[in-house]
Amino acid sequence: MLPENVSSAPSSRRQALMAGAGLAAFASAALMSDTAAAAGASSAQHPTIGKVASAKDGTKIFYRDSGGAGQPVVFSHGWPLSGQAWEAQTLFLSMHGYRVIAVDRRGHGNSEATPTGNDMDHYGDDLGSVIDALDLKNAVLVGHSTGGGEVARYIGKHGNSRVAKAVLISEVTPIMLKTPTHPNGLTMDVFDGIRAGVAGIRSQFYLDLAVPFFGFNRPGAKVSQGLINDFYRLGMQSDIKASYDCIKAFSETDLTADLRKITVPTLFMHGDDDQIVPIDLSAREAVKLVKNGTLKVYPGAPHGMPMTIAGTINADLLAFIKS
After folding, report:
1. pTM of the entire structure?
2. 63: containing domain
3. Residue 126 known to be catalytic
């Protein structure tokens, strides 16, 4: 857990990586038992089809689309994973009649890697390229961690016209880095430590990071080796240059102005035991900047709560979308 003064960096690099990381990442998982319970008796499943959209600069952006005529729900993942991280949510919502689209960020998953353009402006535009290519209307945009910043930047640049609602889960907004206007942020040495982890033995770094990400270092936590392995698997699929550059994007991008441009109903979902993106420097500040924003706090929940308490998150997502 971060110390009470979140601007103070941990005393060692490993502590910085494990406890002070201002990360925006989440891991893919098989359906948790509470997800299955939340899904109910329905067994209908839509086939998931992988497709590609072209970004403004020609970069190929991969996405998975369940198809169907239901209201579209578009998922944006975080660093350093892919759209597969949303499997528990996409299956659940497709079983409830929604058209679900999970996008792989450039340089992550199956999307094309680029030597430049790994920044929040391009991420927002890339999301817009998929939305425009599919001509989506009345869409619900859902972002976790860096994905939350991506959703905010998309709306900040492209407006609310195609969006019905937004959901930002454990997100990095308004800004992770400590600045004169954001004194509660994390210091630069924390993010330098993350860069060192990626540039070093990246595989071990991801395995170590998965533990606090899912709260498995807490007393009494039920550890899932499957979740740890999947975090590693998806993380290692990312291009290392894209993964390295994205650290600057999720830590230093100020999304304050973008949040103020969101006019659609917006739900912030955040665990109060998030060791990766502490709630006090993110959601509790961000919700004040959105005209129609609401914050739902999950007591004791970790950063990776869409996977560890998938059934609870899925039920709350469904309720918000229907409201």
Report:
1. 0.86
2. 13-322
3. no
Residue 2 inside a domain? The answer is no
| Catalytic option among 46, 96, 270, 303 | 303
Is there a domain that residue 8 lies in? Answer: no
Residue 122 falls in the annotated catalytic set:
no
Domain count, the chain: 1
pLDDT exceeds 70 at position 296: yes
pLDDT at 2: 34
- The CA–CA distances, whole Å, from 239 to 208, 234, 292 equal 19, 11, 37
Q: Is residue 60 part of a domain?
A: yes
Respond yes or no: is residue 145 known to be catalytic.
Answer: yes
Residue 114 counted as domain residue: yes
Catalytic residue among 66, 82, 145, 282: 145
Catalytic residue among 119, 125, 245, 274: 274
CATH number, domain of 220, equals 3.40.50.1820
Do 67 and 94 contact (CB within 8 A), yes or no? no
